[in-house]
Amino acid sequence: MKKLKISSVIVVEGKTDKDLIQSFLDVDVVTTNGSEVSRETINYIKEIAKKRTVIVLTDPDAPGKRIRDMINQAVPEVLNAFVPKEKSIKRHKVGVAESSKEVIMEALENLIPSTPSPSSDLTMGDLYDLGLIGNQNASIQRKKYEEKFHLGHTNAKTMLSRLRALGLTKDDLKENGYD
Q1: Which has the closest alpha carbon to 154: 175, 120, 124, 119?
Q2: Residue 61 in contact with residue 42, Cβ under 8 Å?
Q3: Does pLDDT of 133 surpass 60?
Q4: Strand 4-12 to strand 54-56: parallel, antiparallel, or no bridges (unpaired)?
Q5: pLDDT of 58-69, one tens digit each?
Q6: How far apart are CA 36 and CA 46, in angstroms?
Q7: Which residue, 114, 130, 150, sits at the end of a domain?
Q8: Angle CA(32)–CA(46)–CA(76) in degrees, nearest 5?
Q9: In this structure, are 12 and 69 located in the same domain?
């Protein structure tokens, strides 16, 4: 079976994530070796990002979020891919390595920049108007947008940041009919 070649570099947490991805993709993968991302690894990712696209694909859990946040802060030009937690569970474990090829490919096809797009004027007030914050059903409403736009799990602040990174406006969100 011929593997799909990807010119980007994918950053994952560990060896099992790397092995799974490289079982169906011809791609360079950098591992952080867990949640304590070394300064050397961050510097290496910075160097790679000068020449190639870097995609961060970490587990949908707290340590994965912490790793993603560290890399996004240090290397703001990275792109983010999110596997949904509910589709990334096997044998009571949650992670990229527990995801299917299809779930990983979908995540890689729906990348989110780490920095806001200048074309987005979305505000926290807009999220309030759309029912995404400030009411008892807000988390249910946010989940619909998280799934639609492949945002990963979010709170209000993170959702605003990721929607802005995609360059979305309040009108874009209204057009999706969730409000």
Answers
A1: 124
A2: no
A3: yes
A4: parallel
A5: 999 999 999 999
A6: 17
A7: 114
A8: 95
A9: yes
